[in-house]
Amino acid sequence: MPITHTLAKLAGSCALASVLVAGLLFPLAGGFGFVSNRAADAVDNVSAELVEGTVPAVSTMVDATGAPIAWLYEQRRFEVPSDKISNNMKLAIISIEDRRFIEHDGVDWQGTMRAFLTNTTSGEVQQGASTLNQQYVKNFQLLVVAKTDAERRAAIETTPARKIREIRMALTLDRELTKEEILTRYLNLVPFGNSSYGIQDAAQTYFGVDAADLNVPQAAMLAGMVQSSSKLNPYTNTEGVLARRNTVLDTMIQNIPARADEFRKAKTEPLGVLPEPKGLPRGCIAANDRGFFCDYALQYLANAGISREQINKGGYLIKTTLDPAIQDSVKRSLSEAANPNLDDIAQVMSVIAPGADSHPLVAMSSSRNYGLNRDANETVQPQPYSMVGDGAGSVFKIFTTAAAMEKGMGINAQLDVPGRFDAKGLGNGGARGCPPATYCVENAGKYKSPMSVTEALATSPNTAFVKLIQAVGVTPTVDMAVRLGMRSFTEPGSSGHGNQSLADMVKEQNLGSFTLGPVAINPLELSNVAATLASGGRWCPPTPIKEVTDRYGKPVPLTQQACEQVVEPGLANTLANAMSKDDTSGTAAGAAAATGWHWPLAGKTGTTESHRSSAFFGFTNALAGAAYVYGDSPTPGEICSYPLRNCGSGDLFGGNEPARTWFNAIKPVVDRFPAPVLPPLDDKYVRGSNQAQVPDVSGMGQGEATAALVGAGFQVQAVNGAGPLPKGNVMSSAPNGSAIPGSVITIYISDGTQRAAPTPGPPVPGAPAPAPAVPPGLQLPPWWPR
């Protein structure tokens, strides 16, 4: 190389060194003022953040016992204090990266000048001359401050302006922090490859030990990898990593001669890394059957004020309400009832603990496994907590009943149960064979009439509840469903017709079919309806979060919806009692017997008319939830039971798989809670309001009966039929006992064509009184006169 060229390079290096000194000492001097001003601005913008030193860290989500559910992060890093880092690691990193670390003020001026001269005269970068302070600054800007690719490129650009910024911030750092603080922050920040950041995670990733327990060869290997964590990968470049580790040990022999023999011996040892990196799985996808719960918890936190980005960087401890025993029982029951490999049918179930102040979500699962493997029929769709399926069927009859009770009907009411009922004034959704503005419905089987509210809820005749919603009104019934917990019905677009909500659509069209539950549901919300009734009518949002603490252990405030008293406690408690026969004499009795369920509960089955979805809804005083089966393919069809499958003509009912799933899920854990008991009855809702009392008009003439009923505030409809009473006399009325004030009471008028039963003669003196008649097949209770 010509001597003039060499001199020119040397002159250039001296000029560059002058730039550095001038930029640092005289930021506004000469022609370098603009560059220095930019550097000063950058320093001002970053200094506070740099000194504070908050870096991305792993957030951990745990269940109610403290067991991890998921690790959530952008950079897999667990910060540790200085006393939790091995002295071997501290010595190794200082020895290889910055041997004058203890002496300098953040910048090694001697090394900086030498590096500029060497790099300039050689024509390539041979020396970096960066101190640990400077490396920390560069890595902090790259890994923490930079948000875009352009900012990340600027953080590592080889320009005088960047070097000036780096040096100035390194000096600031040295003034503000102790050497121990700077070293600890550096080791907690830098990357170590294989998605590992910081010394604690690196120690676990490669050796399965804590940072405090790193020995000499382990520390030397990790210190050497900082030079290039991507190239120096012990699993792909064993020889390169071994050579670099030994280079680190050579510097330790030179810089710490008192331990030279120990370091020479370490050079003879193998790397000793684990067979494969130990890195923790990332996100809800690794939470297995807890994945649906994990996703819901993150959505809940986003609504409560902590975004996913904050969680992925914040190092939070997220304590959830998930009870692992209940969760495992629910998942096991779901898997038994519905094969996870079914590619077109899913069953979901959530369990909530009732309470006046909160509704903790203790379990959430699906028969479908949580994951990304479509070939194995896995899914990450929010099945348990989004609008899915064709509806919960007759479960919705509880909303009609609750609305009727709120209007004054008591559960002692005797409901009329015709075989067919044409509800005039209700929308029919365009049903064929039904007159306009009329909703026509028939029962699937034969039912006695009249029937008590409790019997009707247990055996579920459709006509009785269509008559009831006609009397109550569609709007109050929909509003009751929303109040009790079906809040998604009010969301814009939930109807599937433009921006209209489902609630508004049903009200606008006055759809009496709402009582038969033919619309998609959010299964979690249905479970929360059960929790609301089990909480004495107290609605609270289903919460998966017990507490969130930040990286320093300080509780993080959350914005959460307040609980609401949506119906009177007496109404909720009395309705719970009215729902208490489904598992003993109702549609779920077979499932209860088959599973050995024998505790008191309030329950209701439901099935859509086309058998494309069904549900069982139930609660005790301690646990509430709903099991829901539906077709989750783009083109769901009718579903058959035992085993669940798509078929030509469905026979799925809520009393089949849904009820069995519920009983099998709750039975193994029921003893962990207070013994199930039904809540106290409230006479106001047993008898009904004073205005709801239906006069007993049996035996009266039609005119007299009509006058009595109209006088009590009811409307009257007369139906003639064969009967034993004199022509024109009332044989019975329905509903009776109590009814919606102002509703229609049907009176059945005898035409006198049937022969009356013979009148018994006078009792024989001294003869025992005849026992009351007993319906065939009814077992006599102990108190029955014999």
UniProtKB/TrEMBL annotation:
<dbReference type="InterPro" id="IPR001460">
    <property type="entry name" value="PCN-bd_Tpept"/>
</dbReference>
<dbReference type="InterPro" id="IPR012338">
    <property type="entry name" value="Beta-lactam/transpept-like"/>
</dbReference>
<protein>
    <submittedName>
        <fullName>Penicillin-binding protein</fullName>
    </submittedName>
</protein>
<keyword id="KW-0133">Cell shape</keyword>
<feature type="domain" description="PASTA">
    <location>
        <begin position="688"/>
        <end position="751"/>
    </location>
</feature>
<dbReference type="InterPro" id="IPR036950">
    <property type="entry name" value="PBP_transglycosylase"/>
</dbReference>
<dbReference type="GO" id="GO:0008360">
    <property type="term" value="P:regulation of cell shape"/>
</dbReference>
<comment type="similarity">
    <text>In the N-terminal section; belongs to the glycosyltransferase 51 family.</text>
</comment>
<dbReference type="GO" id="GO:0008955">
    <property type="term" value="F:peptidoglycan glycosyltransferase activity"/>
</dbReference>
<keyword id="KW-0645">Protease</keyword>
<feature type="compositionally biased region" description="Pro residues">
    <location>
        <begin position="759"/>
        <end position="786"/>
    </location>
</feature>
<dbReference type="InterPro" id="IPR005543">
    <property type="entry name" value="PASTA_dom"/>
</dbReference>
<dbReference type="GO" id="GO:0071555">
    <property type="term" value="P:cell wall organization"/>
</dbReference>
<comment type="similarity">
    <text>In the C-terminal section; belongs to the transpeptidase family.</text>
</comment>
<keyword id="KW-0573">Peptidoglycan synthesis</keyword>
<dbReference type="InterPro" id="IPR050396">
    <property type="entry name" value="Glycosyltr_51/Transpeptidase"/>
</dbReference>
<keyword id="KW-0808">Transferase</keyword>
<keyword id="KW-0511">Multifunctional enzyme</keyword>
<keyword id="KW-0378">Hydrolase</keyword>
<dbReference type="Pfam" id="PF00912">
    <property type="entry name" value="Transgly"/>
</dbReference>
<dbReference type="GO" id="GO:0008658">
    <property type="term" value="F:penicillin binding"/>
</dbReference>
<dbReference type="GO" id="GO:0009252">
    <property type="term" value="P:peptidoglycan biosynthetic process"/>
</dbReference>
<keyword id="KW-0961">Cell wall biogenesis/degradation</keyword>
<dbReference type="GO" id="GO:0009002">
    <property type="term" value="F:serine-type D-Ala-D-Ala carboxypeptidase activity"/>
</dbReference>
<dbReference type="InterPro" id="IPR023346">
    <property type="entry name" value="Lysozyme-like_dom_sf"/>
</dbReference>
<dbReference type="InterPro" id="IPR001264">
    <property type="entry name" value="Glyco_trans_51"/>
</dbReference>
<feature type="region of interest" description="Disordered">
    <location>
        <begin position="753"/>
        <end position="786"/>
    </location>
</feature>
<dbReference type="Pfam" id="PF03793">
    <property type="entry name" value="PASTA"/>
</dbReference>
<keyword id="KW-0121">Carboxypeptidase</keyword>
<dbReference type="Pfam" id="PF00905">
    <property type="entry name" value="Transpeptidase"/>
</dbReference>
<dbReference type="GO" id="GO:0030288">
    <property type="term" value="C:outer membrane-bounded periplasmic space"/>
</dbReference>
<dbReference type="GO" id="GO:0006508">
    <property type="term" value="P:proteolysis"/>
</dbReference>
<keyword id="KW-0328">Glycosyltransferase</keyword>
